[in-house]
Design brief:
single chain; 225 residues; mainly alpha
């Protein structure tokens, strides 16, 4: 690893707390309808709490929802995301891992497992789940980014670069996080001018992102030296 890489920091993109899916059965009777109304109320409480910035309230609501539907991957995924974002990584892995087996896992489960593994510092597991997520969905931009972060952590920088570029190709929404990671990867490989160019474009897109400005300043200093 090059001596200046200790100053560079990859950004792990946080997956947003998605609204959980609910199921209905017209023949299930009044008890099922009652349960669905309870689930809907819990989901509404989770969304409201999330909008107000109350992490603990959001997590409590998601936990209640999950406990009522422990066999449903959509609820497990939402709860695991909430746990990860609150810092309860081992619990998140425990909740979600039963649904991560097989090639036909629920959409987003393997990507979330790779995110959890990154948080735990298990880069081999993060790489494995990210690869599986990409096989399941070749357009999963979060999975490509998670793969790039894992490979960079394992000092497999050219392979990480390819993953970041693939993620950027499929990215939806603000791409500055993956652009930031790509730029740091390029700097680590010694491609300083290209790294600066990527960061300048990212800064133009998101001028208020402090980490982009910081990394741009560091890499410009490296270029001057």
């Amino acid at each position: 690893m090059k001596p200046y890489t200790k100053y560079l920091f990859l950004t792990v993109a946080a997956l947003s707390l998605g609204a959980c899916q609910t199921t209905s059965d017209k023949n299930a009777g009044p008890q099922t309808s009652k349960n669905e109304r309870i689930d809907a109320a819990i989901e509404k409480a989770a969304i409201t709490a999330s909008g107000k910035g109350s992490t603990s309230a959001t997590l409590i609501a998601l936990e209640k929802q999950y406990k009522r539907n422990t066999d449903q991957p959509a609820y497990a995924l939402s709860y695991a995301q909430g746990l990860r974002q609150a810092g309860f990584l081992n619990r998140a892995a425990t909740v979600l891992s039963p649904f991560a087996k097989g090639e036909d896992a629920y959409d987003g489960v393997k990507t979330e497992m790779s995110m959890i593994a990154l948080g735990l510092g298990d880069y081999d597991m993060a790489e494995k789940f990210a690869q599986q997520a990409i096989i399941q969905n070749p357009s999963d931009h979060f999975a490509y980014q998670n793969l790039g972060i894992a490979l960079d952590a394992k000092e497999m920088h050219p392979e990480a670069e390819r993953a970041f570029r693939k993620g950027l190709e499929h990215w939806q929404g603000d791409p500055t996080t993956v652009m930031n990671n790509l730029a740091l990867n390029l700097a680590t490989q010694g491609y300083i001018e290209e790294a600066i160019e990527v960061l300048e474009k990212a800064k133009a897109l998101s001028p208020d992102r402090i980490e982009i400005e910081r990394n741009l300043r560091i890499i410009r200093t490296l270029n001057e030296r």
